[in-house]
Amino acid sequence: MPVPLYHCFGLVMSQLASTIAGCHIIYPSILFNAEATLQAVHDFKATVLQGVPTMFIEELHHPNFKKFDLSHLRTGIMAGANCSNELLQQ
Questions:
Q1: Residues 13-50: pLDDT tens digits?
Q2: How many whole angstroms separate alpha carbon 6 and alpha carbon 16?
Q3: pTM > 0.85
Q4: What whole-number distance in Å separates Cα of residue 72 and Cα of residue 50?
Q5: Fold for domain 8-89?
Q6: Are 73 and 46 in contact (CB under 8 A)?
């Protein structure tokens, strides 16, 4: 969960929903860090990833993106801004 807790996306849509569903929550870093997020998804075999479009763009274009195994991701939540079809397909 790389989204901030002070925002409704992080506090309600992420933390509260995960708690109600009985999921584990991974906090990759204090502030958003694309590499820390990718590393946490890789290390903990996360199945869901949340973020705003800018976060996903930074993760997808990170120079070390291909070194992380993200094959266990099955879904995600994107909010905060419109998402282009191109970004969604990536």
A1: 888 888 888 888 999 999 999 999 999 999 999 999 99
A2: 13
A3: yes
A4: 14
A5: Rossmann fold (3.40.50)
A6: yes
